[in-house]
């Protein structure tokens, strides 16, 4: 498993439905939900849907909800390269009345099926794959009268802008050596389980220095936070200090260090995932290249449009028929 695969596996294991949970923390709704319902409504009963790069199954979840609301039966299939928990897959399967298949830890490029599908979907996913392999595969898996509908990252979207902002915040946190400073303070503080431990800490000049170091870093981060509408990455640092000094005050210094290390790893994995997202986001020129490659693979473009949510561009929708 690559670092990126591990980062995404950790992210999906936390139960997130969207690839940027600061933007769509409750999953997808509004115009995005309507966009997919417009595709689902054209399907006949028992039609097959194949969702590429499914993540935790957000599109499949919308399809299940559509089937329940409209009393329609669809065969739902999902593919995800990262590891998705068995409980998540089972929950989706049990909520759907029809056939349901989910292929976790399966790269789209390596997917093999003798079936053909009426609708092939991907939301914030297909752009991460090797187009030279994925697009011919989609054309091969699509029924003659079927549709491929992709919702992709675009560099004009708020999703892309927030991801970039969070990466800048992460880089600042690491450049200030926030975690190094906090670990030094925790080590000097030691265990605080007895009254004499607290008294000893009050006399420690090193502890005062390391505390001042941490406070200076937090002051710089606080100033930086004011430049962003969403500064969740920065505020995670404040929450960590608060947890160490209050919630975990009675825990051993060793346990506190373990907690700091785990938090740092989570932040690093988040940064890897965000960098993967930014690197896979398409410019207008790259989108044209994608469309041309799809045409060469046997897919004809029928629709291309930005999608807005609450007045902000959140992605770009592409639809193709089999040519």
Explain what the structure shows.
With 323 residues, the protein is of the alpha/beta class. The protein folds into 2 domains: 3-157 and 282-322, Rossmann fold (3-Layer(aba) Sandwich), CATH 3.40.50.150; 160-277, no CATH class. Helices cover 54% and strands 18% of the residues. Strands 3-2-1-4-5-7-6 form a 7-stranded mixed beta sheet, sandwiched between helices. A hairpin with a 2-residue loop joins strand 6 and strand 7 (312-322). The longest helix is centred in the C-terminal third of the chain and has 28 residues, at 253-280. It is elongated, with a radius of gyration of 24 Å.
Helix-strand blueprint:
Layout (H helix, E strand, L loop, with lengths): L2 H11 L16 H11 L6 E6 L5 H13 L3 E7 L5 H10 L4 E5 L12 E7 L7 H11 E11 L5 H18 L2 H12 L5 H8 L2 H21 L6 H16 L5 H28 L3 H14 L1 E11 L2 E11 L1
Parallel strand pairs: 1-2, 1-4, 2-3, 4-5
Antiparallel strand pairs: 5-7, 6-7
Helix pairs in contact: 1-11, 2-3, 5-12, 6-10, 6-11, 7-9, 7-11, 9-10
């Amino acid at each position: 498993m690559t670092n990126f695969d591990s980062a995404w596996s950790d992210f999906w294991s936390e139960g997130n439905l969207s690839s940027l949970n600061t933007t769509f923390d409750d999953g997808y709704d509004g115009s995005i939900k309507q966009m997919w319902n417009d595709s689902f409504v054209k399907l006949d009963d028992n039609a097959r849907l194949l969702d590429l790069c499914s993540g935790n199954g957000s599109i499949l979840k919308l399809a299940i909800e559509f089937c329940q609301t409209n009393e329609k039966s669809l065969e739902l299939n999902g593919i995800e390269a990262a590891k998705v928990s068995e409980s998540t897959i089972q929950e989706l399967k049990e909520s759907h009345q029809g056939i349901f298949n989910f292929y976790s830890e399966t790269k789209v490029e390596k997917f093999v099926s003798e079936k053909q599908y009426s609708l092939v979907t991907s939301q914030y996913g297909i752009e991460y794959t090797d187009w030279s392999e994925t697009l011919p595969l989609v054309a091969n898996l699509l029924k003659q009268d079927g549709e491929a509908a992709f919702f992709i990252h675009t560099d004009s979207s708020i999703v892309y802008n927030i991801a970039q902002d969070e990466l800048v915040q992460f880089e600042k946190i690491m450049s200030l050596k926030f975690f190094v400073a906090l670990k030094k303070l925790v080590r000097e503080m030691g265990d605080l389980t007895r009254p004499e431990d607290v008294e000893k800490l009050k006399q420690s000049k090193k502890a005062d220095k390391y505390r001042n170091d941490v406070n200076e870093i937090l002051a710089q981060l606080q100033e930086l936070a004011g430049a962003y509408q969403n500064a969740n990455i920065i505020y995670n640092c404040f929450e960590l200090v608060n947890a160490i000094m209050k919630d975990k005050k009675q825990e051993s210094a060793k346990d506190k260090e373990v907690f700091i290390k785990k938090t740092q790893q989570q932040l690093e994995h988040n940064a890897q995932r965000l960098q993967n997202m930014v690197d896979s986001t398409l410019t207008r020129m790259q989108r044209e290249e994608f469309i041309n490659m799809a045409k060469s693979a046997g897919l004809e473009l029928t629709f291309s449009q930005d999608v807005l949510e609450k007045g902000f561009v959140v992605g770009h929708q592409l639809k193709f028929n089999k040519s």
